[in-house]
């Protein structure tokens, strides 16, 4: 692999801002998508809360395996709608459950973007530093060549 | 001046596009999991990140063996670059896992076999990169780090099979089992894997580009030092020798 060089001495402020906006657009899109998905969280949590026989925390405390091996969509839940209609938790509880789960989802994806952004910034910083060193060395080489060709 | 590795921009754009599609599919195409709810959607980036960490450490193994066999700096640079990217994805796995675990198990962390061996893997490669950054760039250091890179990669199969060898809280491998995932979930997972794979390649390519730049800088520095040590006027023709 070879490194190509583009003759841009420095990016203008507007271009930098555009790059920053672009780099932020992915986490923002993720947040917006999570927000759009939020009403469905409420529905799922209502169903989960009403199925008192399978509380996940109790399952974890008893040392059992998490339910990831039995991943099934909400629509596959046997009698899910009937349960939803028959035993609804209070609105305050619905809100609490949905908010707590939503925060975990946001936290999970937020951490992914933070890790990637920090790494990309660090990598770009290192590339910039080595690039500046190369420019400096090139200038020194030209100077040395000029000096050595002087009588 | 900006130094950009060739093909880096198209690869970046492809990665961005695929990650966007993967996000869309994770949020809107994949149905919600019955018991865990939407928190389960972390799965679509958690599992591919773990796989890319394994891939990264596998490349470290290949690069380290190649360096020990040939002594080529290219292999060493490949190993170092892959270790960094593998560590990044391992970090993502170790961060997103506890968030999911807190919601599913009720605890952020538990010392079960899968989690502990993954943490050990992460620590080995943190040590690998620390060794490289603190011990300079001589050949002995490169050999030491190649040996550490190989030893660290041997932990990958232990992490992978830990759920089979020991009784753990972590789910056993279920992706390959037929019918274990809902078709829409499986599709979303495949797209997320492709997206994270392309992202991995884009990052690795950039990181290898940095290694190439460092090589170019070292060569340039050597030639500048050689030039500067020459006496003034040495380029002029002398006694018919030039």
Structure description:
The complex is a heterodimer of chains A (151) and B (242). By secondary structure, chain A is mostly helical. Chain A is built from four helices and one strand. Helices cover 73% and strands 2% of the residues of chain B. Residues 238-242 of chain B have low confidence and may be disordered. Chain B is mainly α and 242 residues long. Chains A and B meet through strand 1, helix 1, helix 2 and helix 4 of A and strand 1, helix 1, helix 2, helix 3 and helix 7 of B. Strand 1 of chain A pairs antiparallel with strand 1 of chain B, so a sheet runs across the interface.
Interface with most residues: A-B, 76 and 79 residues
Average pLDDT over all residues of chain B: 86
Q: How much of the residues of chain A is beta strand, in percent?
A: under 5%
Q: State the shape of chain A.
A: rod-shaped
Give the terminus-to-terminus CA distance of chain B: 36 Å
Helical/strand content category of chain A: mainly alpha
Query: How much of the residues of chain B is beta strand, in percent?
Result: under 5%
Give the integer mean of the pLDDT values of chain A. Answer: 61
Q: Whole-number radius of gyration of chain B?
A: 23 Å
> What is the first-to-last residue Cα distance of chain A?
41 Å
Helix content of chain A: over 70%
How many alpha or pi helices of chain A? 4
The major β-sheet of chain B equals: none
Q: What integer value in Å does the Rg of chain A equal?
A: 28 Å
Q: Would you report the number of β strands of chain B?
A: 1
Q: What is the string of helix and strand elements of chain A?
A: EHHHH
The helix/strand class of chain B is mainly alpha
Order of helices and strands of chain B: EHHHHHHH
SS field, number of helical segments of chain B: 7
Keywords:
heterodimer; A: mainly alpha; disordered N terminus; B: 242 residues; mainly alpha; 7 helices; disordered C terminus
What's the structural blueprint in terms of helices and strands?
The complex is a heterodimer of chains A (151) and B (242).
Chain A: E1 3-6, H1 13-50, H2 56-61, H3 80-86, H4 91-149
Chain B: E1 2-5, H1 8-29, H2 43-70, H3 73-104, H4 113-134, H5 139-153, H6 155-165, H7 183-229
Helix pairs in contact in B: 1-7, 2-3, 2-5, 2-7, 3-4, 3-7, 4-5, 4-6
């Amino acid at each position: 692999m070879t490194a190509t060089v583009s003759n841009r001495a420095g990016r203008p402020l507007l271009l930098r801002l555009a790059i920053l906006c672009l780099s932020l657009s992915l986490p923002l899109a993720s947040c917006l998508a999570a927000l759009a998905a939020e009403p469905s969280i409420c529905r799922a949590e209502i169903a989960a809360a009403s199925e008192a026989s399978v509380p996940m925390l109790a399952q974890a405390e008893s040392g059992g395996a998490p339910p990831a091996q039995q991943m099934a969509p909400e629509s596959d839940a046997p009698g899910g709608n009937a349960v939803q209609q028959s035993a609804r938790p209070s609105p305050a509880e619905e809100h609490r459950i949905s908010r707590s789960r939503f925060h975990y989802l946001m936290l999970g994806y937020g951490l992914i973007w933070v890790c990637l952004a920090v790494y990309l910034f660090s990598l770009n910083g290192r590339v910039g530093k080595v690039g500046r060193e190369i420019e400096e060395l090139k200038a020194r080489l030209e100077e040395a060549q000029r000096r050595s060709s002087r009588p | 001046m900006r130094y950009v590795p060739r093909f880096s921009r198209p690869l970046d754009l492809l990665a961005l596009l695929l990650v966007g599609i993967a996000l869309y599919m994770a949020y809107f195409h994949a149905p919600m999991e019955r018991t865990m709810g939407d928190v389960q959607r972390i799965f679509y980036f958690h599992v591919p990140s773990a796989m890319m960490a394994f891939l990264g450490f596998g490349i470290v193994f290949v690069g380290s063996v190649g360096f020990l066999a040939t002594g080529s700096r290219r292999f060493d640079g490949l190993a170092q670059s892959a270790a960094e990217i593998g560590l990044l994805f391992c970090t993502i796995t170790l961060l997103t896992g506890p968030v999911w675990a807190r919601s599913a198990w009720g605890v952020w962390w538990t010392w079960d076999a899968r989690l502990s061996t993954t943490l050990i893997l992460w620590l080995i490669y943190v040590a690998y990169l620390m060794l490289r950054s603190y011990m300079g760039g001589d050949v002995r250091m490169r050999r030491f780090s190649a040996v550490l890179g190989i030893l660290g990669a041997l932990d990958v199969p232990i992490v992978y099979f830990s759920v089979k060898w020991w009784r753990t809280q972590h789910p056993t491998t279920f992706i390959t089992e037929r019918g274990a995932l809902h078709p829409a979930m499986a599709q979303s997972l495949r797209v997320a894997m492709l997206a994270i794979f392309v992202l991995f390649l884009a990052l690795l390519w950039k990181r290898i580009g940095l290694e190439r730049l460092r090589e170019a800088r070292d060569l340039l520095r050597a030639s500048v030092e050689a030039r500067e040590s020459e006496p003034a006027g040495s380029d002029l023709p002398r006694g018919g020798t030039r």
